[in-house]
Amino acid sequence: MATHQTRAHSFNAAAAQYAANRPSYPPLLLDTLEELAGRPLRNARVADIGAGTGIASALLHERGARVTAVEPGEGMAAQFRRSNPEIPLVRGDGNRLPLATSSADFLTYAQAWHWTDPAEAGPEARRVLRPGGALALWWNVTDHSARWQAAQDARMHDYVRTGGTAPAERGGHRWADIPGLHFTERRIPHTRRIPLATHLANLSSHSAFLVLGEERTKEFMAREHDVLSALFPDGTVEERYVVHLRLALN
User: Fold this and answer.
1) Could you say which of 18, 49, 54, 241 is the most buried, measured as most Cβ atoms within 10 Å of its Cβ?
2) Could you read off the pLDDT of 148-169 as tens digits, one per residue?
3) What's the pLDDT at 169?
4) What angle (nearest 5°) sits at the alpha carbon of residue 56, between those of residues 50 and 59?
5) Is 47 left (phi over 0), alpha (psi -120 to 50) or beta?
6) Which residues of 172-199 are buried (b: 16+ CB within 10 A; e: fewer)?
7) φ, ψ for residue 85, nearest 5 deg
8) Alpha-carbon span 89 to 130, nearest angstrom
């Protein structure tokens, strides 16, 4: 079975694929961040941790935040810089933040908190946040009210387990239990309509497939192409997600 660190670093070889095919986040997410934090993102000092290719960093920057991205992976950092040359990025991870004490109004972890060691990342987050600053953790989670997505997730979980791996836990809130912080939760639904090829490329950019190997991944995606082509003969799928957000004030 692939180790947690192997899974975490598997994205570096697929950074361009990740950037091109992963879903973004709805505007309501940023509205909710501002509501729960009690302050606007415009001109706020935001550190986006585990920034990856910059999906969340770009949205925060567009909202007017003064964003600094933190990313440990060489491949992901290189893709980030190509896509977001105007946003400063430093190398580091959530367990050892390369940021000054009380330097951030917001600390954000988009799809990233579950790759940290919370025993280290929790105190680090509180150190870097100013008093009253907001720690925001969120995950895009498949909405199983769409029956085809629930069925696909079940097939995917069964398949990757037979290959000696398992999907990374996400949205599971045991990672958000940090002494001294009280989290407020929100669920924010959103959808996107995309070509079937984009949907399959998104799936294959998940760490469970990246560590499974190219041959086994291609086998699964070929099967899924056949299943979904029958369900969506026009070649377009509507993915449904729910953003699981947890936010706490320092």
Assistant:
1) 49
2) 999 999 999 889 876 555 444 4
3) 47
4) 150
5) beta
6) eeebbebeebebeebebebeeebebebb
7) -65, -20
8) 20
